[in-house]
Every structure is written in structure tokens, then in C-alpha cells.
């Protein structure tokens, strides 16, 4: 009756506990002994190891995102000298596009880092040529079809009458 029910309940509890220890022993790597105290002790050590690993990975991820923010903040609109200009949105608004242009004599170097979407490269080339710049060389790199880095080396045609700042602002407006 009551004693019998208590014995059955104890037996079920021991069976469940045994199954839990068996399941735990399959999860913990490198177990040498399979007695309950060894399984439990090694499981505790393994949990502490995993917690430390998570902590290190979180610190690493935080450090990476912090470095990215610094890089973006450095690229706020700042004229460097008469022949160089850089513009990007503030990180609070949007981090892309970033555009940098430098000129020397009749040559201009334009670097664009923007979001990748269909037709963006054709749009960039079209708008650069519209500014009376003849493209001599183009280099593009796409990262995971998310962002695009374009470097254009162009020559100013006779009809070119813009400043480097105007080139950056016009390309920016076209994106």
C-alpha cells in the first residue's frame, strides 16, 4: 500500500536519475570513469570551461564592434587639404556609403564603400562619367554580397569643372 507506493516512487526516481547521469556522460567529453561522482565532477569542470570560453568570445566580439565604430567615426566629413575630401554619414544615421576622393594634376582617385545591391556599380560608373571624368581603371571587391568597395582611377576631361568636394557630394547623392 503506502510503503509499496513509496518503494515504487523511489525506484522511478533512481531510474530517472540514472538516465540523467547517462545522458550527462554522453555530453561531457573525455570522461575516464563513469561513476556518478566522476561524471558530476567532470561535468562541473566542463561547464566552467565553457563559461570561460563564452566570456572570452563575448569580449572578443565586443572589442571587434568597438573597433568598427572607431573606424567609422574617424571618417566623418573632413576636408584634408585642397585636393582631398572624404564624406560619410554619422554612425548614428548610417555607416555607408563612405566616399573618398583625391586629385593630382588631371587625375582623380575615388574610393567608395557602400551597400551592395543590384546595379550599384553601373550607377556609380554612370555618375562618374556624367561628371566629365574618363575612367582609366576600376577595382571592385564585394563582401558577402552585403557591401561593395569600389576604387576608380579617372582622368579629368576638358569639360571637367568641379572641385573634389563636389565630385564626392554628387556621387554621394547618386547613391
From TrEMBL:
<dbReference type="GO" id="GO:0046983">
    <property type="term" value="F:protein dimerization activity"/>
</dbReference>
<keyword id="KW-0805">Transcription regulation</keyword>
<feature type="domain" description="BHLH">
    <location>
        <begin position="1"/>
        <end position="50"/>
    </location>
</feature>
<protein>
    <recommendedName>
        <fullName>BHLH domain-containing protein</fullName>
    </recommendedName>
</protein>
<dbReference type="InterPro" id="IPR052610">
    <property type="entry name" value="bHLH_transcription_regulator"/>
</dbReference>
<keyword id="KW-0804">Transcription</keyword>
<dbReference type="GO" id="GO:0080090">
    <property type="term" value="P:regulation of primary metabolic process"/>
</dbReference>
<dbReference type="InterPro" id="IPR054502">
    <property type="entry name" value="bHLH-TF_ACT-like_plant"/>
</dbReference>
<dbReference type="Pfam" id="PF22754">
    <property type="entry name" value="bHLH-TF_ACT-like_plant"/>
</dbReference>
<dbReference type="InterPro" id="IPR011598">
    <property type="entry name" value="bHLH_dom"/>
</dbReference>
<dbReference type="GO" id="GO:0005634">
    <property type="term" value="C:nucleus"/>
</dbReference>
<keyword id="KW-0539">Nucleus</keyword>
<dbReference type="Pfam" id="PF00010">
    <property type="entry name" value="HLH"/>
</dbReference>
<dbReference type="InterPro" id="IPR036638">
    <property type="entry name" value="HLH_DNA-bd_sf"/>
</dbReference>
Amino acid at each position: 500500500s503506502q510503503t509499496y507506493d513509496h518503494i515504487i516512487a523511489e525506484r522511478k526516481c533512481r531510474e530517472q536519475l540514472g538516465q540523467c547521469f547517462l545522458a550527462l556522460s554522453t555530453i561531457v567529453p573525455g570522461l575516464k570513469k563513469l561513476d556518478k561522482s566522476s561524471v558530476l565532477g567532470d561535468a562541473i569542470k566542463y561547464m566552467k570551461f565553457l563559461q570561460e570560453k563564452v566570456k572570452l568570445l563575448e569580449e572578443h566580439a565586443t572589442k571587434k564592434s568597438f573597433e568598427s565604430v572607431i573606424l567609422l567615426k574617424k571618417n566623418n566629413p573632413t576636408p584634408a587639404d585642397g585636393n582631398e575630401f572624404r564624406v560619410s554619414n554619422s554612425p548614428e544615421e548610417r555607416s555607408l556609403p563612405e566616399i573618398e576622393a583625391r586629385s593630382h594634376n588631371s587625375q582623380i582617385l575615388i574610393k567608395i564603400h557602400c551597400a551592395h545591391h543590384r546595379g550599384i556599380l553601373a550607377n556609380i560608373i554612370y555618375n562618374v562619367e556624367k561628371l566629365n571624368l574618363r575612367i582609366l581603371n576600376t577595382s571592385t571587391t564585394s563582401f558577402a554580397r552585403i557591401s561593395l568597395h569600389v576604387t576608380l582611377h579617372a582622368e579629368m576631361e576638358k569639360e571637367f569643372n568641379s572641385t573634389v568636394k563636389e565630385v564626392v557630394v554628387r556621387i554621394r547623392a547618386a547613391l
